[in-house]
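Appendix C reproduces, verbatim, an entry submitted by the partner laboratory led by Prof. M.T., so that reviewers can inspect both the input and the predicted structure.
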Amino acid sequence: MNCKFKIFFTNLLLSLTINLFAQDTITVMQYNLLQYDYATSSCIPIADKTSNLKITLKYIKPDILGCNEMTPDYTAVDYLLNNALNTDGVTYYQKTSYTNLAGSSIVNMLYYNSQKLGFVSQRIIQTDQLRDINVYKLYYKAPDLQTTQDTAYIQVIIAHLKASQGYEAERTTETLGLMNNLDSINIPHNYLCQGDFNLYTSTEQAYQNLIAYSNTALRFYDPINRPGSWHGTYSFSDIHTQATHTSGSCFITGGLDDRFDFILISNDVRLGNKKVKYIPGTYKTIGQDGQHFNQPLNSPANNSLPSNVINALYNTSDHLPVMLKLKMNPTGQSVTSNQDPVRNITFNNPVNETLPLEMELEKNTDLTVQIVSILGNILYTKKLSTVSGTVGLMIPFNHPKGIYFLRISDQNSHALIKKIIKN
């Protein structure tokens, strides 16, 4: 191999590994906070509500936090930022601005992790005089970002539709107005559409406007694809988001029996066409164990999360938040691969002289485990034949300080690559 070709080959390997590693995970969370109000007349004092909210946020660590039912007051907006997010040494969360062209008593808000995301712009969609629908555009701060033109973008739409049965026509107007607005721009994008939609069934026209809109390129998709009559139906008890209480003057009561809160995704996010992809299986109703149909969230015991988080959710709102995760790939063409040979992997990073590695496999497979230098040199290879379940390895790591790559591939040439930092 001549010198010029070796340099070219080394640069090609480096470019490929940078592309493979320019991936990150973004956690998105949506929460109706039940009149998050700084006023002293609030049913739940803001200090109490915020101390409980802080417990949940520290546990989930959202990178994008969408909120419904914020009071239109920057005192409250800033209080949440400074007392529930930027606490205990955390300083990187930032907020957008709330809007209230509709003159509502409650508004939407968006907070974001500024270490991973930057703010581009926001706009308002007015579909009626009830509440603003907000559209926030964010960009991903990739590790090798040179300009914002080189990265991935996400547009987060937050809506709070008209509540209660008997107002289906109003919700239809709101969602049709939203979709017609997107249609007037007619540019498919990495859209998330989230909020308290107050929907009782998937056949309601408001929901159909979102998932079956005439412009197929702009339709939204439900990540869990669970159509049906959500209200009061036991088979949907694992995705119900309201009501967390059966008694109490501050909360809607009746126990968990409604799916009101959603995060829907555009087709580009579903397929990973524009450098952002929904990670299948990550959509969850936080705190929902499916065992509390028509019951309060915390009684009988709910073991889906630590008890302090369950109690925090119970004391914050009559809604449960929903979440999902996105894979970011700003330097690649797409994030369409769903062929990782390993379902879950655990290892210490940074690493010292030994790399303890634990892998969780979905099926029997042959694996090749490698350590690769940043220049593409293979430093370690271990072949594993017909392994399944949980597999552990202790990999010697007597290499100089620096950046390395762990590469795990199967017999079908599907590969999972992780960055390793040597102390």
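The first helix runs from residue 3 to 21. Additional entries are available on request from the coordinating office.
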